[in-house]
Amino acid sequence: MKNSAKDVIRIGVFICDCGSNIAGYLEMKELVEYAKTLPNVAFVQENLYTCSEGGINEIKVAIPRENLNRVVVASCTPRTHEPLFMSACEEGGLNPYLFEMANIRDQCSWVHMREREAGTERAKVQIAMAVAKAAKLRELSRIQLSLSHRAMVIGGGVAGMSSALALGNMGYEVDLVEKKGRLGGILNELNMILPSNEPPENLVNSLVSRLQDHSKIAIHTESVVTKTEGYVGNFVATFQEKGVEQKIKCGAVIVAIGAQSLKPEGLFNYDGQKVITHLELESQFKAGTVNAKNVAIIQCVGSRCKERRYCSRICCMTAVKNAILLKEASPETKITIFYRDMQMYGVENEELFRKSKKLGVRYVTYDPERPPTFDGDSVSVYHLRMGRDIVTPVDLLVLSTPLIAQDDASEISTMLKVPINENGFFLEGHVKLKPLDFATDGVYLCGNARFPSTIREAISQGLGAASRAAGILSKEALFTSGIVADINPDTCCGCLGCVQVCPYGAINFIENRGVCQVNKVLCKGCGGCAATCPSGSARLDGFSNQQLYAQIEQAMAV
Amino acid sequence: MIEKVKEHVKSLMASGKISGFLGLKNENGVVIPFLFQTEEELENGFSLGDTETPGAARYPMAKLALHLIQNSTDDSPYGILVRGCDERALNELSRWNQLGSPGRLVKVGIACQEELAKNHECRKPFPDEFVAGEKVSPEANNSVQEVLTKDLDSRLAYWSAEFDRCIKCYGCRDICPVCFCNVCTLEEDALIKTGDLPPENPMFHLTRAIHMAGRCIDCNLCTEVCPAHIPLRTLYKRVAEIITDEFGYITGEPGEGKSPLNILGPDPGHTAAND
Amino acid sequence: MSESQFEPKIVGFLCNWCAYAGADLAGVSRLQYPPNLRTIRTLCSATVGPHQILKAFQKGADGVFVGG
Q1: Which domains does chain A possess?
Q2: Residues A246, A253: Cα–Cα separation, whole Å
């Protein structure tokens, strides 16, 4: 019986020279000839650059001309180029999931540069493995989802306000949820902002009035988010607004819950009177009650230590700012800053640092092994250069304490299923590539919730998070990946093994049918369910057992 | 003992607590599993499986109950004759969500006679839900330790020789009270080539062993039923032990908790000492 | 075959997001290693179960690497 055209697997293999990156180290002719001998391979083509316009075009043209129903590209790495080649397949009229890549550059020619023969052998095996897997590929489809174009911003500090305002100005409805009675966050407690040299009220009032006047923005003060459900594009958040329960639908969530200043209980006889934090100093400034003649400031109190290894980043600038303000208010005040190292990055901050020195602020470095001590009247510290202790009389001691995570950070982390680090700050998806995204789609972060930041940084992160969220909100519809798990209801025994191992909560047990089912929107394709399923009823299309077995067999065949 | 069990079952039937009793029946000298539905049926050939020796005729009662539940059209409760091993199997199946609502099965437990317990070196020859018989002490099975004294090469040679006798009858799987899948990995052609005899060695037997990790309740039915006399119990007992060592999980105990292989993340039972 | 000629075959299951990226980075950094590895990309090391590992050994792998 003759197979119908659809049943015959015809694989096209495109082998990339990558200029000399691959061709310089492997025997390309040999690879081409070898690929021709592999089962189901109908067409083999060598390209100088498969990813160039010409190379992409050759894939597009070859699919209908050669009647190909699978495509394999042997080139760089799927981590960078798979999307490009998949769309080439799609444009050539082939389901994009009928595509497979063999990594013969990053994981072959570049790591076996001095072993031409053995490297070529490995490339052959990797190509054979890709071809074997390609033969087992099935057409997959992406699921289309509608979405809410509304956003929720949790936290009404400067980062959250900036984020909400930016989204509102882009034309999206925004719910700004603040747990306190008024917007502004930690800015409300500050005295003055440097280097712009203006009171923080100006910034807060300007943001608040623009937010209040905005038709797209709803401000919810005294509101605490208690529950979030759903997924990117379709979250449902429940919050208590002044004791009344509210429910909103939103497509994206921005976490901007800020941070709090560490109260240095038990350190340097901290009492809030003679020994205070910078925040307390700033409120004394506002009240006009500062009249100390000998001021000492100690840096890194409660940070860069065993309990908190991190540097809080902003305390140096805060100390310099407050030293300048003290000096300007009364030039005869003696100020000494005890520090480990000063972080004053950027020209403007460096200028402030110099200015403070010109004004007569004294800087004394200390060794963390021999930190300063305070006896109630004076600070003693071992002076590294003089090689002996020096004693500085003090009638006001200011401690530069770090920002620490909010008390409800871990609660919010659990609620939104997004991670926090060991210090309770929210953990971005990738430090460089996804600094304002979480690994979970549709949830973003900015400001001090992420890590201590200056006001400018908080604003720019707020704007950045808004722009990331807008990337989702601006879409007409969302598409999920085709690589998602599926559970065969005819063979599933309902043992619930998969439900427990799914890290995304994507599997539900359908009680009345006694079987488990995958929510394909939540599924990220990790395959944990497929690996744990005793009966093989759960399968991850695109990385199914059959496909992996085919690869393993080829890996060992040569 | 048998009279006491019979009376107990009759009273369960009379009070309507069970709509049938899954037990054993002596039919013309052959003991078979049977679903007793009337007192008359009970009077006619009810057996505890004591033939040539005590308990010589054993069946995977838990597995039969599983099929009974899956194929019944209503929620009516059944009585079931259980020994210590059957109860462990029921406990394990319950953790895997296989037995439906609790109370679906009413256990009628019997203790195993000393000879039976000795024959099978049983770790707990009586069920917790106990109706008749006399409890005898557990017997140790040291087959795992014996194999572990061999060095790796001779261990591999030992098992390869054992597995090479396999005639792939699937008896070990079919008799196993805690094997419950509708489709079996052992029959997946892409994993283990079907049609080969002996089956791919050691793939076939190790695949089954993997499925016994955190599951085998050490009933010895597999070894008893194997026509090639492969000491399968030793293999499965070993993998179950690994899970016990790593996660502190003991198969067949009553409770709700999941098998550790079905839990994501660190298990509280997994102490630093085991790391 | 003498000991010195033994060339192990190693199957590596690499998580797309870490180990596979690491293997790519080895290439980008031009770190050289012996060509005895054959890599299989998975979206997560959770995809890899005991069956895949058994299969690799059954087919003659001398070592299996799961990176995730």
Answers
A1: 11-140 (3.40.50), 151-260+404-473 (3.50.50.60), 264-401 (3.50.50.60), 485-541 (3.30.70.20)
A2: 16
